[in-house]
Amino acid sequence: MQIELRVCQHCLDGDHGNDRRTEVINDMVACAERIKEYKEVIDLDAVHIRKVREDEPGKPASLPVVAASIQDNQVALNDLQLVTKGQDGNMLMYVDPQDILTVLAGNVDEISKAVPGDITVDLSPTGAEMISDADLGARGPQTSQESQ
Ligand SMILES: [Zn+2]
Question: Left (φ > 0), alpha (ψ -120 to 50) or beta: where does 114 sit?
Answer without folding.
Answer: alpha
